[in-house]
Write a structure and sequence with these properties.
The complex is a heterodimer of chains A (326) and B (248). Chain A is of the alpha/beta class and 326 residues long. Chain A has helices at residues 16-29, 47-52, 74-88, 99-111, 221-230, 239-243, 274-280, 297-300, 309-325; strands spanning 3-10, 13-14, 37-42, 60-64, 92-96, 115-120, 125-126, 132-138, 143-149, 154-158, 174-177, 188-195, 207-211, 234-237, 264-268, 285-290, 303-306. In chain A, helix 3 packs across helix 4 (99-111) and helix 5 runs parallel beside helix 9 (309-325). The longest helix of chain B is centred in the first third of the chain and has 17 residues, at 37-53. Classes of the chains: A alpha/beta (326), B alpha/beta (248).
């Protein structure tokens, strides 16, 4: 088994999913006797950061030798990755099922002719015959499906937050990665980029504070943002809130929005319609705050507060700040 | 433009999911099927693009059994010119993408639109796989699609990790559709009547095999009962989140 790991960066900084990808591969295949964990970086980062992936078990990091991969372009990245896969003789590629992963994994599954196990939510169980058993959510978190994966070449993408990176190892060597295959491979022409500044990306967030119609209007969102700030959380909202343009659609979590699985999800003034629960029910711990004691959210919540958001939110924010200060 | 819209049918979003006795498939009893919401946006956008540029056809295609024909008729009622059904029972994205690619290679479409994912299996792989099979450019998770002022080029905004970007892409291309792109259209009576006589062609599959083999389905594990706090007990809630749940 020869493993390659694709690690994402943005603006020269390794993304959270990069550490998760290395750890996912190492935690799964080191116990199987795999010793070589080579990382292909999707763009350049500092030499020190690259070598630091060794602290999570990487044994070699390949850093692009020019700027062609620094901004994500699916055709360039998949061309360079395919070249790296073929040159290394790898038979397994591991990546995160992020927006980038969702563009790369299906293209590589075809060009590299690999079996694709996408969006798995746990490390695979490896059977004695070499096949894997993998699990993923289906029907927008309303169900689980277990699959058998076989094939000579395999590609695995895992959902963000599927596991916690574990420190095991020491800084590793960094070598240049030829990006020649990516030169001229671009099929899109970038006109402009809008980056979300100073906000924790929702899909990566370990804690999420989400508001619904119970907030009564966009002017009350400072309460959600205050609580998010106090506990280092991202903000999200329900579908009605994004439909009414109180918040932008990229904050909408639920069956037709973003599916997330943070450690902590605090739902404020959201009743808990089945479509909303579908997008968030994989969260580790759920807190529901609602005036209606019959709100369906209380059926899936671990902790509940029956009360008005306007009253509860400032108190909870204060309590968290006090507790952090103590 | 001649646009192909790939659509799947999915259980209505209010569906309570249950599986068959052998856990191999969805229990379809009482399940209402709808056009996958993201595919519905793709269809509306296809119609809008042709209305704006004044010409071309919109074809919808589905890989699946005859039970999907009501959903295809609905797409025709919304405004598609013709429908194609590849008569297969696909088990994963690979099969769908490979069947679509085989069909498209024999045709002359300028643009393929589909949803960014289906809300049943949520993989979001068909568009990407299809683009690679065809060797066409891919723009994933598009939030706007407009003519770029130059024939055969579209300006597309797409969601990405940590933001959004606008790109130009030359046709033919595969674009997957995200919310915000447009609003779905409700078919009117004239559309529904016209849909009855629009062509719905059934073609035979190539019989390409799936990547994965399904072992079983299960429902997610039940969650524990909720522990309640009053608005005066926020310190206790924070304590529970720290000490018991260990998430703060």
């Amino acid at each position: 088994m020869k493993v390659l790991i694709y690690a994402e960066q943005q603006d020269g900084q390794l993304k959270k999913s990069a550490f998760e990808a290395v750890s996912f591969a190492v935690q799964t295949w080191a116990p199987q006797g795999v010793q070589d964990f080579t990382v292909v970086l999707g763009g350049r980062v500092s030499e020190q950061d690259a070598a630091g992936l060794g602290n999570y078990g990487a044994t070699l990091v390949l850093m692009p030798d020019d700027a062609v991969m620094d901004a994500f372009e699916p055709h360039v990245h998949s061309a360079v990755l395919l070249d790296a896969l073929q040159k290394s003789g790898a038979n397994l590629l591991v990546m995160a099922h992020t927006y980038a992963g969702k563009s790369l994994a299906p293209r590589l599954a075809v060009s590299w002719q690999a079996t694709l196990a996408a969006a798995v939510n746990h490390p695979p169980e490896i059977q004695p015959d070499g096949t894997w058993t993998v699990q993923r959510t289906v029907y927008s978190n309303k169900g689980l499906a277990t699959y058998q994966v076989s094939g000579e070449r395999r590609l695995l993408s895992f959902t963000p937050n599927a596991l916690k990176p574990v420190l095991q190892g020491s800084p590793c060597p960094v070598q240049p990665l030829s990006t020649q295959a990516g030169a001229g491979a671009s099929r899109t022409h970038r006109l402009e980029v809008q980056k979300v500044q100073g906000k924790i990306p929702l899909t990566e967030a370990e804690r999420v504070i989400s508001g619904g119609r119970g907030l009564k209007g966009p002017e009350n969102w400072h309460l959600i943002e205050g609580l998010a700030d106090a506990c280092g959380a991202a903000t999200a909202c329900s579908k009605p809130v994004s439909d009414m343009h109180w918040r932008s659609h990229d904050e909408h979590v639920g069956q037709t929005g973003i599916t997330i699985k943070p450690d902590l999800y605090i739902a404020v003034g959201i009743s808990g319609a089945i479509q909303h629960l579908a997008g968030v029910s994989s969260s580790k711990t759920i807190v529901a705050i609602n005036t209606d004691p019959e709100a369906p959210f209380f059926k899936v919540a671990d902790y509940g507060v029956v009360g008005d958001a306007m009253e509860v939110l400032p108190r909870l924010t204060d309590a968290i700040r006090r507790s952090a200060g103590s | 433009m001649n646009i192909l819209v790939c659509l799947s049918q999915v259980p209505d979003t209010t569906t309570k999911i249950a599986f068959s006795a052998d856990n191999k498939s969805l229990n379809k009893t009482g399940v209402q099927y709808i056009i996958n919401p993201y595919d519905e946006l793709a269809l509306t956008k296809a119609l809008e693009l042709n209305e704006a540029t004044g010409g071309g056809t919109v074809t919808v295609i589905h890989v699946g059994g005859a039970d999907a024909e009501p959903v295809l008729r609905k797409a025709l009622a919304i405004g598609a010119d013709q429908a194609v059904r590849v008569d297969a029972e696909p088990l994963d994205s690979r099969q769908v993408a490979a069947e679509l690619a085989t069909y498209i290679q024999g045709q002359s479409y300028d643009l393929v639109l589909t949803g960014r994912e289906s809300i049943d299996y949520n993989s979001g792989l068909v568009g990407g796989m299809l683009s690679q099979y065809l060797d066409w450019p891919l723009v994933n998770v598009a939030t706007s699609i407009d003519p770029a002022g130059q024939a055969g080029v579209l300006a597309v905004s797409r969601d990405m990790d940590g933001g959004r970007e606008k790109v130009e892409v030359s046709l033919p291309a595969v674009i997957t559709c995200q919310k915000e792109l447009t609003e779905p259209r409700i078919p009117n009576m004239r559309g529904i009547m016209a849909a009855r006589s629009k062509p719905l062609q059934v073609i035979s599959p190539q019989g390409i095999g799936p990547d994965l083999s399904l072992l079983s389905h299960a429902l997610p594990p039940a969650r524990q009962a909720c522990r309640y706090f009053t608005a005066d007990q926020m310190d206790a809630l924070v304590e529970a989140l720290r000490q018991q749940a260990k998430v703060l």
